[in-house]
Task: inverse folding
């Protein structure tokens, strides 16, 4: 069985999948195939969706999804590719294709007031983030590039909590309409993921059984 550990990754980022304009993923700006990264981590998780109605959060099961993230860490720069699949047969397609792929880069730049400051570039929008030095609690903010006036949100806020010792990542991704300095919630995704690291196996993990 693969060894599990929590990711210290900041990003993401994840569900940002409700972004209807995220149909075109950014191509990673490098043609090099690499095995030389400092760390590779795989997240495997599920997400439950909620819609904000009448000043309260209401479950929106048709927007739930399963997801995987492959994250490569290079010192102070981390790169992630996220794939998600919306599992409900009644999903209406309003948040984009049922299957989506997204790309994220997080650059950790400095330490200010005991918080690590980061800059984010992604296929769903750019922004900034903060974290403690052990990446146990992180908050990231990204903005939709050139949002349509019909889009009910223009901002993402992702709050992450990493339980290294248990190998579990939990995060809340909020979709928000920000206007004139005020915020109006639209939707959120509550994600839980298990983290897997590279390992060696003593034998084949499964065999054919008749």
Result:
């Amino acid at each position: 069985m693969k060894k599990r550990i929590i990711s210290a990754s900041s990003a993401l980022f994840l569900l940002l999948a409700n972004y209807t304009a995220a149909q075109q993923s950014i191509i990673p700006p490098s043609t090099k195939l690499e095995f030389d990264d400092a760390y590779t981590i795989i997240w495997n998780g599920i997400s439950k969706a909620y819609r904000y109605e009448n000043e309260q959060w209401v479950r929106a099961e048709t927007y739930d999804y399963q997801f995987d993230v492959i994250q490569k860490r290079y010192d102070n720069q981390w790169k992630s590719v996220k794939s998600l699949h919306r599992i409900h047969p009644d999903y209406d397609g309003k948040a984009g294709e049922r299957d989506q792929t997204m790309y994220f880069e997080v650059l950790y730049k400095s330490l200010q007031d005991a918080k690590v400051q980061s800059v984010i570039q992604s296929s769903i929008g750019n922004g900034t983030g903060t974290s403690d030095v052990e990446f146990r609690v992180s908050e990231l903010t990204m903005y939709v590039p050139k949002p349509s006036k019909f889009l009910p949100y223009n901002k993402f806020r992702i709050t992450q909590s990493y339980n290294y010792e248990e190998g579990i990542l939990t995060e809340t991704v909020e979709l928000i309409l920000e206007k004139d300095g005020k915020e109006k919630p639209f939707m959120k995704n509550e994600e839980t993921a298990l983290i897997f690291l590279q390992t060696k196996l003593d034998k084949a993990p499964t065999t054919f059984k008749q």
